[in-house]
Amino acid sequence: MRIAMIGGGYVGLVSGACFAEFGTEVVIVEADQDKLAALRAGAIPIYEPGLDKIVSANVAAGRLSFTDALDSAIDTVDAVFIAVGTPTRRGDGHADLTYVYEATRQIARHARKGLLVVTKSTVPVGTGREVARILREERPDLSFSVASNPEFLREGNAIGDFMRPDRVIIGIDDTATDGGANARALMHQLYRPLYLIETPIVMTGLETAELTKYAANAFLAMKVTFINEMADLCEKVGGNIHDVARGMGLDQRIGRKFLHAGPGYGGSCFPKDTRALTAIARDAGTPSLLVEATVAINEARKAAMAERVIALCEGTVKGKTIAILGLTFKPDTDDMREASSLPLIQRLIEEGATIQAFDPEGMKPARPLLPESVIYANSAQEAATGADALVVLTEWNEFRAIAPAKLKAAMRGAVIADFRNIWDPTTLRAAGFTYRSIGRP
Ligand code: UDX
């Protein structure tokens, strides 16, 4: 079997490389010449543990290749996946589908009979149906199969998530002339290795698959937001959010994952998908008040993190040096999209602070997004040197191992805001710090 993946970005590259690892021949179509040249030279433009190995092994095995020639790629494949970007459209919160529909028209131009077209990007409900309509409009002479196959990849964990997923969601267009039989057969063949390890595969309709993706992400965002609210409540009434989360999570109906209180969720998916879902639901005349509240609470939370730091610094950060450990929206990624560090650092600088930041992977992508005055350190220890206060924003493992005494010796002041609860309050206080974490006494 041979497939084309349109888009060599995060989703396209990971999915393409993993399908190749499953034994399928994959050609990734990337229009950006710089990105294409990098990929062809064996350079992986994103930080994702394990991806470089899978890419190089499959390129060497002749199962994975890169091109900018969509026409010749489409000519030779059984299925084509659309994995282009769907950013938030300015103004209304909807996903911008320009790239998806442009790719669809290009595919139609070069397609042959029976081609299966699959949307992999996260797209609003109704997009798969529109893709099918465009294909038929462009090529009334051909029969097409259309499917929706949303991804559930976590950055930093994407390879494992693809190879051993909790489930696979496949939406099939059953209005195709064959009732969707070709699509079903091809998708089955593509995911054969997962059938062998008994991964649940949910075969459903196009709209259901599209909605499932949004519903899953919005639910997870809501779960995080809920525990964040409970953490704030713990701080006011007395309580330990760690134990509340554990106590709640042991109920199997709730589950223990995604109950870590923090500085608000960020990243490329949750903020974008929750906003898109609220727009979809409003348009449909059934607003999702829960998701709308989640979006608003999370925005307010990110903005409020600076106030916590200022309060800890006795009401002002003017003239003070603040060390920031962690810039990315979560560990094991270099992704800065919608990271809590962005509004926090901006605000602290406006309030007159000097920022010394360190992140193991995120400093290069952070530079264009943060004020020029930010000083980038070569290590956590260097960032802490001479600082009046220190803020932990991303729970990189290497930060957990830092010895409090060494920090204390390096810093000028003794204030720590640990927004990821990576350190033990008793130990830090014993070391002489004024220590505040999230939702813990
Ligand atoms: C997410 C989904 O998990 C994935 O299924 C989807 O396809 C894409 O979006 P990702 O954005 O990589 O993946 O990150 P994730 O690990 O889910 O974390 C999202 C955000 O929530 C991060 O900012 C993280 O710090 C925050 N988070 C997560 C918490 O604050 N607490 C938690 O308990 C979990």
TrEMBL record:
It catalyses: UDP-alpha-D-glucose + 2 NAD(+) + H2O = UDP-alpha-D-glucuronate + 2 NADH + 3 H(+). Residues 323-425 form the UDP-glucose/GDP-mannose dehydrogenase C-terminal domain. Its EC number is 1.1.1.22. InterPro entries: 6-PGluconate_DH-like_C_sf, NAD(P)-bd_dom_sf, UDP-Glc/GDP-Man, UDP-Glc/GDP-Man_DH_C, UDP-Glc/GDP-Man_DH_C_sf, UDP-Glc/GDP-Man_DH_dimer, UDP-Glc/GDP-Man_DH_N, UDPglc_DH_bac. Pathway: Nucleotide-sugar biosynthesis; UDP-alpha-D-glucuronate biosynthesis; UDP-alpha-D-glucuronate from UDP-alpha-D-glucose: step 1/1. SMART domains: UDPG_MGDP_dh_C. Belongs to the UDP-glucose/GDP-mannose dehydrogenase family. This is UDP-glucose 6-dehydrogenase. It comes from Asaia spathodeae. The lineage of its organism: Bacteria, Pseudomonadati, Pseudomonadota, Alphaproteobacteria, Acetobacterales.
